[in-house]
Amino acid sequence: MLGVCRHSLCSIRSGSLQRRGFLNMFGNVQKTHKGIHYVEQVEIGYTPKQVFDVVSNVDEYKQFLKHVRDSKQYNYKAITQKNDNLGNMQPTAYMNADLEVGFPPFIEKYTSSIILRDPDYVRVEAEPSRLFTHLENIWEMKEGSVAKSCILTFYVNFGFSNELYQKVANTFFNLLVKTMTDSFEKRCNSKYGKPSVTTRIIKSETTYH
């Protein structure tokens, strides 16, 4: 998911009655939260490298993520030293990405810094914006229980910047975040064909703060 709002495109052009009607869509939300932590872990029928290649290709997000209206990656910098002096794996590349996300009338652009460790780790962190106070998501891919499968762990932590956005948090969360791993799995299917195993949900946890 992927996550500074350099230019807000959010606008409501309808009349006052329509504006009140839109805001009342969220009147039944009993609780508002400043932030959400979400962790999902699944076993899917694609290799860690295949999943990594799909997740790290931000340019293509607009082609298959429903609420990503535009996506562009740039400033890619490869890192030649893959291990530190202790033998720990280090990032293999850094890059930036601009995304335009949302559903009318909430449409925002934001910029993210991305750390890549091919083929098992992607970390995305957005700068603070009109929409988010913070947004971070991490993808980790490990070998699965059978050949050509992987254990995919998706973590996202985000907070909205004002009360109105907090009121639409549940809508945003259900439309975009909770369907994230499924969307990427479908993308793998379109690129690599039939999965090697049936998807198995290992863990799904949501924490509000």
TrEMBL record:
GO MF, any single term: ubiquinone binding
Residues annotated as domain Coenzyme Q-binding protein COQ10 START: 44-185
CDD domains membership: COQ10p_like
Cited InterPro entries: COQ10-like, COQ10_START, START-like_dom_sf
Record-level GO cellular component terms: mitochondrion
Top-level taxon of origin: Eukaryota
GO biological process entries: cellular respiration
Pfam families found in the cross-reference section: Polyketide_cyc (PF03364)
Gene3D superfamilies: 3.30.530.20
Similarity comment: Belongs to the COQ10 family.
Role of this protein: Required for the function of coenzyme Q in the respiratory chain. May serve as a chaperone or may be involved in the transport of Q6 from its site of synthesis to the catalytic sites of the respiratory complexes.
Oligomer status and interactors: Interacts with coenzyme Q.
Name of protein: Coenzyme Q-binding protein ZGC, mitochondrial
Organism of derivation: Acrasis kona
